[in-house]
Amino acid sequence: MTQHVLETDGQVCPFPLVEAKQAIDALPLGDELVINFDCTQATEAIPQWAADEGYPVTNFAKRGAAEWTITVQKA
Questions:
Q1: 3-73 architecture in CATH?
Q2: Which is catalytic among the residues 13, 23, 34, 57?
Q3: What are the residue boundaries of the structural domains of the chain, listed by start?
């Protein structure tokens, strides 16, 4: 399993989610995508997308005052 990092800080929604969808499509099964973002709406949109697609969320944490990181595994 390999972790791939997607930096989306500074992007407004829905772009962190759009980029996450594109990035995870390119990953092999079992790899993880670490998505760093600062868009408040993505705190709900990204976990919901992961659940809808059946991708486990292995980490979800606040990194700063208004910054988060979420790790999604391609399963």
A1: 2-Layer Sandwich (3.30)
A2: 13
A3: 3-73
What sections of 1-69 are H helices per DSSP?
A: 15-25, 42-53
**Over residues 47-70, mean pLDDT:** 97
Contacts of 15 (CB under 8 A, 6+ apart): 8, 39
| Rounded distance between C-alpha atoms, residue 35 and residue 67, angstroms | 11
Give the pLDDT score at 36.
Answer: 98
For the chain, what is the radius of gyration of the CA atoms? 11
Joined tokens for residue 6: 């997607």
* The predicted structure's pLDDT at residue 1: 87
Q: In what order do the strands lie in the sheet with 3-7?
A: 3-7, 32-37, 67-73, 57-64
Amino acid 28: pLDDT: 97
Residue 39 annotated as catalytic: no
